[in-house]
Predict the structure.
Amino acid sequence: MIRAVCWDVGGVFTGSPHDAIAAIAAEHGLTHAQLSGAVFGDLAGERGHPWHELEVGRLSLREAWPLIEERIAAIGIDLSMRDIMRRMGADPFDRSIVHDTAAAFAEAGLTQAVVTNNVREFADMGDGRGWRRMVPMEHMTVVVDSSVVGMRKPDAEIFAHLLSELGVDADEAVLVDDTPVNLDGARSVGMQTVLVGSDPAPAMTKLRSLVLGDSID
């Protein structure tokens, strides 16, 4: 039985960064892997890549962005991180179904958590911006932010930390995430998983079936 639902942020409550990177790459005649590798490194954990160092709080945004822009320039395009972040903020899909699902779980008495690979400066950027303003935090009992705890998905230790904070066994928790390698990490410690695609609706249907027993038509 699922007792805890653990939510990613980007690509779940917001538009998919993977889709944005793929679109930008195509516009510049690059593959998704080329641009993603320059910006984010190996998602499974390229130690020392500035984005990974940023996500675990060892670099500030001011320190990391020029280093990432050097990597972008090295693959032959002139593109700032500010431009990339602006594109990643666009979203053609209605995310209200995700908020509605979180509200339904809260009404059912389930524990919910956020577990996010994120940047310390992105938590609250003022003027109504920041990832915490995009998530229904009133439903979240636990927040595990990589830039605060110094660990990141898909490493097993961040999931062990999450489960300890929640006080549940691994098979009683489900990770909802848009990055397959993160789901692999969660499954490696025994958690259940749901992959969110570009359109979140199919994943929310699957999640509600898993957690609440709703039928899938």
